[in-house]
Amino acid sequence: GQRGRRKPQQPTYYPATLKPDDYSVKGCDHPDIDIDQINSPDTLEYQHNLRVLLQSTSKRSFNKNRLLTGIVRPSICLGFHQTKMFKVPRCFSLDIMHLFNLNLTQLLISIWRNSAD
To answer: Which long-range contacts (C-beta less than 8 Å, at least 24 apart) are formed by 65-73?
Structure first.
């Protein structure tokens, strides 16, 4: 999976491809990721990574494997009939609703109010 980044002192990782200026969070300070070089989802790699995650023997190893694999928890989609859908992770779509409806709206409002960062 894609390596993520998190805000300093925060536990949540985000799929940020560009490294912010003056950013040095341990484990997250890898170079920029070229989005043209990102491969399409691989079902065999996902199954392997999920197996690694599920075979964790402690909470500490589970958390370590979450970071290693990029999988937070098994998907509910794994319970669906496999012949009636695309395999995980290819069945996941982009979150276009939030991209356009929330993020863009928030940006435009802040620009109109002259309060954009």
So the answer is: 67/13, 67/27, 69/1, 70/1, 70/2, 70/3, 70/4, 71/1, 71/46
